[in-house]
Amino acid sequence: MHIILYVLDALRADHLGCYGYGRNTSPHIDAIARDGVVFENCFTATTWTRPVAASLLTGVYPAVHGTRSRYDSFATPLTRLPEALKKGGYRTAAFSTMGNVSADIGFNRGFDVYHDLFAEPSLLARRQKLDAAREGLLQTSYQEMVLPLAEDINDYLLNWLAVNETADTFNFIWSIETHEPYRAPEPFRRFAATPLRPGEGESDDIRAAGPADRQRLRDLYDDEIFYNDHCLGELVTQLQQAGLYDDTLLVITGDHGEAFYEHGVYTHGHTPYDELIHVPLIIKFPENWYAGRRIPALVELVDIFPTLVATAGLNLIEVGGTSVQGHNLLPLMEGTQTAVRPYTYSDTQSLAVHNHYLSIRNQKWKYIQVKRPQRNIRTLFQTAKHIIERGLLLDVLRRRQHFQRNRRGADEYLFDLTADPQEQQNLAATEPERVRQLQQQLAAWQQQNESLARQQTTPATNYEESEHLRKHLERLGYL
What we know:
With 479 residues, the protein is an alpha/beta fold. Helix content is 33%, strand content 18%. Helix 7 runs parallel beside helix 9.
């Protein structure tokens, strides 16, 4: 069996046709969904990339694997998904276009082959070249880099599969296409006007955007989905022609969503409203097992690890998954269970000087807790140091609204998702008992995570960001 775990960075669920979107952004993903299973209510554990990637590969929440902030490497001793599958005889490969999911940070452990496509020599020769020192990949040794296209992923993946056609393989794909900058190749600009003006859809443009720019940015974003969807269609066609599609387990998901001013901000990495934590999860099984099923139960991205291990016919404990917090989703598809959990959770903090966001959610209620950094001499110094080191002073002055997004809003929110699915009416003040119950449940989850984290012998280590990786990530909107 060939397992392909394909992550589209910053892909929100409600911009796909199979999740009810009115625009035809995803005809090929929709076709894959008809061959497989659609999980209608899948949620991510945090609202930015690096900790989500670590959770996908370990099956645990960020507080347990320890890769939580921008300065944390991925160094947990927990068994990783490629290591677990290798015990079952799988050959493993990864193809990443994103600096937050790179070998330099520690994501290559367990893979036989790991391609950081943003630094592949063959792509440097034929894609838009970026100066690494200027563009800012925070921890990489690479001097030059590119923003790879989704079609480049296909080239590398299909070459690998051709060599390993008769083997069992696990293939971890990270596509940056749907992440900013929103600049799809010109033939795929179906929703946005062309030609694009210089800088449109890039980080500075988004930081300067206000409410009037919402539809323009959504159009650019939808073009990126349409292009990546086309590349997925090409991948499926190639798998079919090679006779591999029927023997392939294809998982399509997003690591987090993307905000388009629904709550006064753009992009991601902040308050866990559903536009950021509700992500697609589509699983196409070999021979199209369970085709056409739609699962309404609450599931999370940490569930992918145990589900893939079970589908491979392996015992989770025997392959090292004793600490996995996710649930095997096969019983939901087989109809022997209707639910695997009562709540989903999230935990987001990319820097100590940023807010710490926690959330708990079921089908009806959602509670968000905002823990703000202490405003004392130490944190003010850290904030100033962060701004000066990254040369952000002029940017902060010009884009004040973007940089103050961590300071706005209440400290807690409660939403009735049945009556208010857009999360516009905060009921925290009028439903104190409901808030108390959810606070207790959230605190219990945190305590469980802390207990499991203490059992690990080696915590995630901090690293010094190289200037190259820093510049790359800044181009992608990370600070």
